[in-house]
Amino acid sequence: MRLGETTKKNQLKKQWLLLILLIAVRLKIVGLKSYYRTIILRIKLAIFSNSPNYQWIWQVLQSEPLDKIDFENTSSAIEQFTSRLKQTADNYLHQMLILNDAKVGEKRSRQLHYIAKATQLSFYKGKRQRAKIERDDEQHEQNQQQAIKEFQALRDRNSTPSQSAQVVVEPIFQLPLSYDYRWDKPPFDRDLENTTPDIQTQFLLPNIDSNAQTNTTFEEAVENAQQFLTYQDRPSASIAHNPPLQSVELTLQQLYISRRDFRFNTDTHALSQWGYQVLFNRLAFDALVSQASELSVAHKNAAKLLLLSFITAMPIKTLIQPLFIATSSLFTIQKTQVTLSYHLGITPRKIEQSHLVFENNSDKVSLPLPVALVHHLANSDNLPNIEADISQNKINEIADYLKVLRESLELPYLSINRIEMALATLLTRYLAGSHGHIAELVCRMPAPNAPAMYYSSHANSEIVKHYIKALQQLNTQNHLVFDYSNRRTDANVGSAFALTLDSVKSLLEEVQNWIASTNDFEPLFNRLSCYVWLVFCVLTGIRPNNALGAVRDIDLEVGWIMVKDKPNKKVQNHRLIPLCDTLIKHLVIYQKILAILRTQSLDNPAITARLHRVTFDDADITLLNLLSEKFDKLHAIKRGDMNAFLQDFIKLDVYWTRHFVRTQLEKRQVPIHLINTVIGHEKNQQEALGKFSSTSKKQVHNVRHTFEHIATDLALDNSIHFLEQQLHQLKEK
Prior knowledge:
By secondary structure, this protein is mostly helical. The protein is 51% helix and 6% strand.
């Protein structure tokens, strides 16, 4: 490619970048923060990653010059821009269909349409205009799905093989075109059961129930979103051509997972516990002990840099950037104290709840770091010279030092990648009392891969304790002195919506008093329905979506409910939640309340028919229901109904119930994999009741005892007597 042609493309890329940033700024100004975050994240990945999975967008956009658009007329320019962008998206999809890659084409086409839609929403503020944009987008997606089906059907008819056609066996695995290094986060998803054969990218488009009648928090969007990024990352050339284990044999994968459960080291991406101890002691000696004078200055600085990466889980390529350590907000550098401080990005409470007490008061995690080590590396003169080595795509000083370590420590698989992920591996696998959730908090796991951190509650001192304990377990030769770790903050870190046990108990008592204040049959029935719905959420942690708890999914005899409570069908999952005895008693009493309503509504066929299905059929219809405003219909309880029901008691969305349940299960020391099972925070192919798991249903069912303890602490045994009294009053009305 000639120089002039390259310059022209770079200029066009800058124009598109400025235009998209302008759109993002306008989105933030008009209050469309979810669109703003999505656009910024997408353009950030396209700028800082050289992977073809992100760079494709520039190749598509650079084929569309902007000089043909009349920017003097704003309205006309918007229409021209969005229509051309949508046309470009459709053309790209058509090209990918021809190349027999409909999945990738559909995803990338949807991303381009998303930019076009965001552009329109950023300029049109009217409700009718925005509603029309949403309708047009939904209609276009339906038309696109239909077009894909028709194209694939036509291709299948045209490509039907004859009997004599030769069978072609395609490879089961294809390598990515290039290695994609993650600059901002260390690699944590290297377990082989999480590895998928193909690189898949998906725009972070949270599909929240449209009838929820409430605004969505960032935590809920992350939890319900399609998986943002799954990819195959191969850091070592020695295994670059090996297929993932699940492509070889299923029994081997099950064997690997079972060995991992017993903490056997079978992952080629990780070292053994002994290997990490030997490596840490050598790095600490070379970096901190003055007797290591035989080392060159370059190797000593390399040891310091690798040690800092080891204890912070930060990528080397980030730490070696000039002035990064000195100027980054991650490092708080003082004369006698240095901390690694970062925010989890948790949505703050917009309305102060003066009468309620929350578990947490911060989302900031602060970890102590060795003072002398960070002070030394904060000086850019002590960092490797990256400009001299940039052409070789590696840092010679670090590479030379690693070569020395491999030979002297007899660790042939030692690499920068294994050092960067060492802390996460230790906290997840080798440290007693720790687990993957602690590793997510300490190592700054990206939000789409760790929604649990937004629903938890931990004292910062507890997180520091796990962190220091991991380092002390490594520091067998005492080269690292922990005199810097004494200063700790006592802030509770985690969810901003997790209420304390006493606050929830007080809230339930207030609601009971409010229910008892009415004498009319219909309002009393509605209040009792909402109250049982609230107790149901507090004692299960289920997502409080619309149409909660179908009759056919609830087993009151055994004590189970099967839920599929993610409104996004593409990531829909089924799981079992145990029902404690107190909750079962509440639901049994509610069934009696429904029977009374049925006798009171014999003159209303609509209500009678629905109640007949609820009472006698194995129906796909909700157990908990509300009467309409005119009391002439019966419908499922919606999330918006509950928000209206509780608005006089608490100014929070009812999603706070999930935050409450998760924090309570953690405080009562339920095993982390069972918490993730009950709450629905399991990772791909790590489901407790999945085909690769050794967890039994009995183990999950035993969590009901913990729920029963929560019910006892909330005084819900008194709530049963309260419901029986209200049942007696309904019979008399």
